[in-house]
Structure prediction request, 287 residues.
Amino acid sequence: MSQQTKRHSDTRMVPVPTNSIVPERDLNSIPVLETRHLGIEFGGLKAVEDFNLTIGKTEIAGLIGPNGAGKTTVFNLITKVYEPTTGATLVNGHDLHGLSIAQATKLGIARTFQNIRLFGNMTVEENVRIGLHNSIKYDMFSGILRLPRYWIQENRQHERALELLHIFGMEKLADERAGSLPYGVQRRLEILRALATNPKLLLLDEPAAGMNPRETEELMENIARIRDQFGIAILLIEHDMNLVMGICEGICVLNFGRIIAKGTAAEIQANPVVIEAYLGKKKEGQA
Prediction:
């Protein structure tokens, strides 16, 4: 792990009134995300219950838990794929109640998915430019007639797409078909497409899935660089504990749809309830 990445994980975390912790540097800023008693039922089954979480404006946070704990359901609630049965979600102080996915995106939420959702037959650049749709500033008339405003905006979008691809050193792949890329590179492209929407909160659903140790190490450094360069918050779901413990400043642990622990990496690693949830309760007399 690089020294830069280690410094990110050693950030001083301080408590806030919502029974959460945020980086000390974010104390004087409105939290980028607050969930208050968030919950959802499917056919009477409580998939997520009383989920309360606060994320600071520039925090790198982790959401972990065993398979089936409800982590992706939480992401779906935050991004308005699901409407909650109970509770509320605030992004930069704005209540998301009744908003659509597109409206939530305009407020500054972007995400990647557990299963990659790229447009495989489109080029790498075209996939990134899909994320830039909110920044288009020409009208339909200009687009149809290819007026000067159209070409100015097209050139700006091309330049912006290449700038984003440069983050992962992928600018030379701009004209490659996205579906032909190796799995790990497709993962990185999906992150860049999400960044293209200019988010305030970036949700990453298992970003290291399918990556080898070297790629995961690079991903850790790039996540930190993205946070620093864009000044945004990042919430990630991940099963690679080396990545989570190395990069996340605050960690929330979910089990059977409920939060069982919140804290820093050191606190989570030493928490007996978390250890039991992951490893199972030791039998009596077992060492």
About this structure: The chain has a mean pLDDT of 87.
